[in-house]
Structure formats: C-alpha cells, structure tokens
C-alpha cells in the first residue's frame, strides 16, 4: 500500500497542474464573489476638530462592516454629495456631527444611526472616565472588554422556533466553491483506478503479493489526501493570506472537512463503477458536480431556497451536509453536538457509496 | 514443474470465447500459442494466469488446482500483457522500483534486481528517462522487464511484439530465447506472427474460434500438410476470373491473394502446373514466377481454418 502511495505522490509531483489550476480557479472565484458582495458603502468625512481628535473618531467609525469612512476636505465632500456620487457625507464635531445629504435614501438613515452610535459610545466612555477619575484609555479598554464578553446574551428567535438566518457573503463562496471544486480533484484521482485497470497496471498488481484491499485503500487514501489538502490549502490562503475571519473556528473547519472529503471519495468510486470509459466519465462528472453544487447550496445559500422539491433533493447530496457543517460551525457557532447530524449522514453516505462503488468496479470487465 | 490448463472454458453471456482448451507447459520449454485476432488467446492466458476465473475447467500447477488458491501460481508466474502496463510519467527505473516493491523487494536487493533487469532489456542508458518519451520498442522491452523482477519460473507473454519495428522485435525475441536458455525460464508465447513462433518455440498450440485445433512440435504440425504442396504464383496483375476459376477446382485447397502473390494448396500427387497455365491463359493472367514451397506454419493454419493468420 505504501508503495502505491509513494508512486502516486511521485506522479503528482510530475503532474501537479490539475491540482494547481483547480485550486487557483477556486480561490479566484471565491475571492471575486466574496469581495463583490463585500464592497462597503463609501462615506466621505471632513472635520472641524484637531488632527488627534479627528483620527480618534475616524478610528472608531472604521469598525463598521457596512461603511467605509474616508477623510477629505469640506469642498470635496460637498461636491461628491451634490453630484450624487455618494449617498451622504459627515462633518465631525466635538460632541455632535452633521449629516450632509442631497436626498433621503435607505442608507442615509443607516449612516446616521451608525455615527450616532459611535458618538454615544464615545460620550459614555468619557463620562465614566470623568466620574471614576481613571484614564480614558483604561476605561475604553474595560468597556470594550465588557462589550466583547457580556454578562447576559440575548438570543432572538422567531415564533416558529427556527434559528435566525445569517448569510455571510464572504464565507459562503469560500465554502461553496471549495466543496465544489474538490469534487473534480477527487473524482479525477479516483478515476485513475479505471484507467490503470484498462492499461493492465491493475492486473500486474493483482498478480503481485499485494492484496486487493491494499490496492483500493492505497488509491483511495491518496485521492482523499489530495482532496483534503486542496480544501485545507484554499481555506489557509483565505484565512492567513487574505485575513478572512472564520469566526475563530479555523481548526474546526479543517477537522470538519474529513467527513465531506470521505463522502466525495466514496461518491467518486461509485461513479467510476458506473461508467464504462473516460469519455463517459468526463461527461458525467461536470453534470453531477454542478447539479450537486446548485442543489446543495454551494453556489447560493440554501437558506434562500423555498422550493420544496429542491430542498427535498438537497437531502440526498453530500454538498448540502458539507455546507451545513462548515456554516454551522463558522457562521452559526454550532457545537460539535449540533453538527453530529450532518457528520453522521456524510459518513453513512461514504460507507454505502464506497461499498456499492467498489463492488461495481470489481464486477466491471475492463 | 508443470503448469497445465484442463478443459478451460470461458463463456460471456451466450458466447463461448474459449471452449475446452487443454495445454501444458513443462519446465524449460518455450510453447507457442498461435491464432488470429479474436481466437481467444488472451482470454485463455488470462485464465491460466488466474486473472479471470474460468466458467469451467481447471488450471493446475504440479497437478494441484490453483483456481481457489492463486497465490501459489502467482509467486512463480510472470505475465507480460499485450498493453503497455507501465506508468508513462515515471522513468524506466522508477517503474521497475515500483513493481519491484509490490513484489516485496526492497533496499539493496531491489536496487540490484532493477540494475540487472535494465541490463537485460538494454535500457541501462535510458533508465532515468520518462517512459512517455520511449519508442514503442523500448516500452515493450520495459513491459517485459517488469514481469521478470520477481524471477518467475513461468512467463506468459501476450503478443509482446505488437506494433514495433523489426529491430526491436528481433531484440525481444533474442531476449526471450536468452532467458529460456540461461535461466531455464518456461515461456508461453502467444502471437499471430508465425515467424516468431517458428523461431522461438519448441511446441506449438494453434487456436481458432476459442478451441485448440492443432498441437505438437513444429515438425509434427508441418507434417499435417505432408500430403500437400504450397504453390506460390506471382502475377503481373491479379485477374478476378482467374481467382474464381482456381476456387472452383476440386484439386485446389485454399486460395489466398496478397498483393500480386496468389498462394494455393494442392495434393502432392497431382501435377497442378498444367491446370494453372491453362486457367491463366483462359483468363489473360501473366505469371512472373511459379514456385512450389515447403509448407510453413502459416500454410498449416490456412489448411486447418481456411483463412490466413492475419485475416
């Protein structure tokens, strides 16, 4: 088995292009879609305060996920607003601010609310510092810490008891496209079994002291490892290279990939057992992977799908459970206990499909 | 040591691809299995090498069945498949190392064996080149080399010279002969090239449509035609009426036409020359030469099956 793995690794080093290209495409598409959804609303700002006070206020304003505040001179801000290039501008003052608008839009009230909130928090911190005679920085630190770790947590639920829907426009494409592209990587590696059977290499192995299970395990472990490394690599690039926040659960993400990658390896051997030749395989793989990605919520969140037919179909697709696991952990903050359902389904799918798949491959007379 | 196939039969759905084949191999001999494409040679050797189970019949090593316990045979058997069963993106040396490892060779023993095989198949200088850059002949040589790694006592070669140039073919034939002479390796050699089998083999089995139709030493097989002559006529232009007329003659057995050479089989006791010249005159056929030849294995095959080996 180790000799099979060693040979496969050597072959991978000789021809890594399929792996590299699918990884790059995946990162590129996830990045484009993620950042396209992530564009912040530009809000120009000018100030009548000192440079130090302005910078402090601006720093507080920059914490918004929705708005990007940019310091400019008064004239430029007014021009941008009057020409309609921005929805609103802000004049920063000591205890208050002016909102400069040319017309009321949905976003102008959001901007007003946000800036008001920042001023309120600033004022609150100043008042505490004034009454406690503590340095302002120290108070700010304590307040921030208290906000991050509240004594009480309020959880909002609807009357039907369902969890609130959260759509993370950055993580959705990263998870979706990684789980989608890895299907190709794994399937094309598993397909090598059929190719080697046709080329007679498999027969040479059968005639050697190698056991059949070693031949299958060697090939399938290799496909699993390559697939796993690809998704892990994509996540790593986004996490460390592009500073994407996995909500502190990056390590869990890597662990949760195991059942999904296992299920896809099993699905691939099942498909390899069904097809007769390379042409059929090349035709069937895009069909299956694209439809699974659409049904399973890799392209768009399953939360926005209302069709009962599609939702029922999604129950039979590994991508659904892969997305459920990853989003459950990263976005909804689910515990391992909550994730046991998709994990078990993926392992179940894996075991069943692998059993049938190996049986089909064995029966097929190449 | 003896390997034998007893009443081997393989049926796929309603078609019997191999029907009751009996053959044996004794230590140190080269046995040819001759037959046209589709005769059932590859299926027969797949069954003998335990790759596919027979529908009925048995494969025995030293009189013990190996169908249920194939590992005993596999230890002493090397198979050279018709396909190039190699990793094209690995070098010759890496391929040998991989297949050596799966035969449980390792360390210095593996290295020594790999070097020895590379020497035997004449690829020492090209050992680090990727197989995909090899010529057809070099790939075929390496294909043989891989089957020799575990020093088998029996080697089954399924058309090992298909699609290669004459020089490479000679090299392979010489290699097979040398293996047999120096290492006492027993060889079952399948081919549809008569001259290869004539050059290599001590005994021959002729197979057609799934059955063995003749067997014996070269001489014994050629003696099947002891009562007939092969007459080879070269003509300026092949005239269809002449061919039709030949086929209608009761004394003429089997007529084959290849380019401008017409070959017939006719009883030795009958002088067919007069008849041939008469028919040629009637059909405006001009001979450039007419020759009586000693029967070859090809002629025997023609006699037995009514068609040429490479039809």
Describe the protein in words.
The complex is a heterodimer of chains A (366) and B (311). By secondary structure, chain A is of the alpha/beta class. In chain A, 68% of the residues lie in helices and 6% in strands. Chain A has 15 helices and four strands. Chain A has helices spanning 2-14, 17-36, 51-61, 74-82, 106-132, 136-148, 171-190, 192-199, 201-206, 212-241, 250-274, 278-295, 308-314, 318-330, 336-363; strands at 41-47, 67-71, 88-92, 97-101. In chain A, β3 (88-92) and β4 (97-101) form a beta hairpin. With 311 residues, chain B is an alpha/beta fold. Chain B has two domains: 2-221, P-loop containing nucleotide triphosphate hydrolases (Rossmann fold, 3-Layer(aba) Sandwich); 227-294, Alpha-Beta Plaits (2-Layer Sandwich), CATH 3.30.70.100. Chain B is built from eleven helices and 14 strands. In chain B, the strands form three sheets. Chain B has a six-stranded mixed sheet with strand order 6-7-8-3-9-10, with helices on both faces. In chain B, strands 2-1-4-5 form a four-stranded antiparallel sheet, covered by helices on one side. A four-stranded antiparallel sheet of chain B has the order 12-13-11-14, with helices on both faces. In chain B, a hairpin with a 2-residue loop joins β1 (2-12) and β2 (15-26). Classes of the chains: A alpha/beta (366), B alpha/beta (311). Chain A binds chain B through residues 3-4, 6-7, 10-11, 14-15, 198-201, 203-210, and chain B through 49-51, 71, 74-75, 77, 79, 81-87, 89-90, 94, 98-99, 101-104, 130, 146-147, 150. Chain B: GO terms for molecular function: ATP binding; ATP hydrolysis activity. Chain B: Pfam families: ABC_tran. Chain B: This is ABC-2 type transport system ATP-binding protein.
């Amino acid at each position: 088995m180790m000799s099979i793995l060693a040979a496969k690794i050597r072959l991978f080093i000789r021809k890594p292009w399929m792996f590299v290209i699918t990884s790059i495409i995946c990162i590129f598409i996830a990045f484009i879609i993620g950042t396209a959804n992530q564009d912040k609303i530009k809000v120009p700002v000018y100030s009548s305060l000192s440079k130090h006070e302005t910078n402090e206020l601006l720093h507080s304003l920059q914490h918004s996920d929705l708005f990007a505040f940019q310091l400019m001179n008064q004239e430029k801000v007014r021009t941008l607003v009057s020409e309609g290039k921005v929805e609103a501008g802000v004049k920063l003052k000591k205890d208050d601010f002016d909102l400069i608008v040319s017309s009321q839009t949905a976003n102008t009230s959001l901007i007003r609310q946000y800036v008001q909130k920042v001023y309120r928090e600033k004022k609150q911190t100043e008042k505490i510092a004034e009454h406690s005679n503590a340095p302002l920085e120290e108070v700010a630190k304590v307040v921030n810490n208290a906000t991050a770790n509240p004594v009480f947590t309020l959880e909002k639920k609807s009357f039907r008891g369902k969890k609130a829907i959260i759509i993370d426009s950055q993580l959705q494409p990263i998870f979706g496209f990684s789980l989608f592209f890895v299907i190709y990587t794994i399937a094309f590696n598993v397909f090598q079994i059929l190719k080697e059977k046709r080329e007679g290499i498999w027969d040479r192995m059968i005639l050697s002291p190698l056991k059949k299970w070693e031949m299958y395990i060697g090939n399938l472990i290799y496909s699993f490892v390559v697939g796993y490394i690809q998704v892990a690599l994509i996540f790593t690039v986004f996490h460390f290279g592009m500073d994407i926040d996995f909500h502190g659960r990056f390590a869990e993400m890597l662990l949760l990939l195991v059942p999904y990658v296992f299920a896809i390896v099993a699905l691939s051997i099942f498909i390899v057992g069904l097809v007769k030749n390379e042409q059929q395989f090349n035709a069937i793989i895009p069909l299956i992977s694209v439809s699974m990605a659409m049904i399973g919520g890799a392209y768009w969140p399953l939360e926005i799908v209302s069709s009962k037919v599609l939702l029922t179909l999604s129950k039979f697709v590994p991508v659904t459970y892969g997305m459920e696991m990853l989003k459950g952990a990263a976005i909804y903050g689910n515990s391992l206990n909550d994730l046991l359902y998709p994990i078990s389904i993926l392992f179940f799918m894996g075991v069943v499909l692998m059993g049938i798949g190996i049986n089909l491959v064995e029966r097929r007379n190449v | 040591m003896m390997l034998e196939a007893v009443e081997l039969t393989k049926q796929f759905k309603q078609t019997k691809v191999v029907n009751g084949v009996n053959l044996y191999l004794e230590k140190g001999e080269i046995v040819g299995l001759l037959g046209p494409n589709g005769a059932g040679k590859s299926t027969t050797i797949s069954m003998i090498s335990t790759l596919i189970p027979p529908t009925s019949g048995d494969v025995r090593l030293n009189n013990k069945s190996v169908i249920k316990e194939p590992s005993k045979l596999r230890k002493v058997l090397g198979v050279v498949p018709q396909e190039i069963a190699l990793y094209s993106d690995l070098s010759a040396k890496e391929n040998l190392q991989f297949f050596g490892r799966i035969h449980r060779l390792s360390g210095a023993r593996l290295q020594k064996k790999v070097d020895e095989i590379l020497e035997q198949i004449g690829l020492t200088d090209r050992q680090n080149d990727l197989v995909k850059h090899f010529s057809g002949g070099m790939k075929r040589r390496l294909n043989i080399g891989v089957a020799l790694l575990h020093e088998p006592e029996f080697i089954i070669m399924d058309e090992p010279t298909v699609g290669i140039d004459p020089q490479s073919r000679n090299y392979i034939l010489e290699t097979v002969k040398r293996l047999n002479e120096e290492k006492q390796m027993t060889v079952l050699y399948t081919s549809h090239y008569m001259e290869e089998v004539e050059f290599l083999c001590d005994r021959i089995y002729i197979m057609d449509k799934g059955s063995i139709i003749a067997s014996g030493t070269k001489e014994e097989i050629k003696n099947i035609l002891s009562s007939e002559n092969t007459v080879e006529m070269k003509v300026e232009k092949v005239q269809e009426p002449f061919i039709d007329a030949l086929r209608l003659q009761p004394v003429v057995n089997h007529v084959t036409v290849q380019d401008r050479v017409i070959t017939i089989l006719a009883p030795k006791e009958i002088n067919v020359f007069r008849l041939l010249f008469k028919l040629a005159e009637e059909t405006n056929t001009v001979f450039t030469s007419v020759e009586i030849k000693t029967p070859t294995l090809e002629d025997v095959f023609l006699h037995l099956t009514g068609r040429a080996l490479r039809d």
